[in-house]
Specification:
Layout (H helix, E strand, L loop, with lengths): L2 E5 L2 E5 L5 E4 L10 H10 L8 E4 L4 H8 L7 H10 L17 E4 L14 E4 L1 H7 L4 H19 L2 H42 L1
Antiparallel strand pairs: 1-2, 1-4, 2-3, 5-6
Helix pairs in contact: 5-6
This protein binds zinc ion.
The site of zinc ion (ZN) has 8 residues, from helix 4.
Amino acid sequence: MAYILKKGSQYCYLNSDGRVCKTQNIRQAKHFTKEEATAVLKRATKKLAGYEMVDLDATPKEKVAIKVKRKNFSAEDRVMVYNQYEGRCGICGEFVPFDEFTIDHVIPLSKGGTNALKNLQCACKICNALKQDSLSEDFLSKLEEIILYQMKTNYDEALWKKINTIRRRRRMARIKQNCGRILKKSLQNRRIHATIAKS
Ligand SMILES: [Zn+2]
């Protein structure tokens, strides 16, 4: 388990002499064990006033921020991503000329994504700018909301109602499906526990 000491966007590290220093660069933050972090906090009470211990295993976001850096993609990487999508934007499906395409992280780095090829998609500039660092499903559901709202206010309310009903049904079906899966799993677990208890 690793801990860092932080206060807002300030992090603690030890210089080559072992002196307590501060940095705004999370990648420079020192990874301590729990005991080390406690000792450092005690040793530099004044300097580290307001600093707190953050468990990196409990906060994946911090962990990811440290581990996965945004990459400057090489020409080779770009060709691979572009070819993987045959030059089409993975979000809107439109063809994008090679000198205009951007690389989008399907799962954003800030949400645990990596720079691996399978997490990269070809995206046109507009889609990439709109999606920013949201997850694909969140982005698509936001788009759906925008379109439906705009339809309701600017176009045909009757059509909007129809689509909204379908949408609601689809959502209910999804919830039911998920509940079914959870129920099945818990029944399975109960059966396993019962078998263990019997033996
Ligand atoms: Zn697009």
